[in-house]
Amino acid sequence: MGHEVPPGQNYCPQGHPIALEQVQFAQGGGQQPQYGTPPGNAFPPPAGGAKYAQAGPVAADYSGASGSYGTPPAYPPPAYPGAQPQGGYAAPSPAYAPAPPAAPAYSPPPAPEPEPKPVQQPTPPTGLGGFLVSFQLNPTGDFWPLHGPRVSIGRANSGENVDVALADATISSRHAVIHVDPVGGTIAVEDTGSTNGTFVNDEHLGFSGRRDLRDGDHLRLGGFTTIVKIISRT
Question: Taking 70 as the threshold, does the pLDDT of residue 100 lie above it?
Answer without folding.
Answer: yes
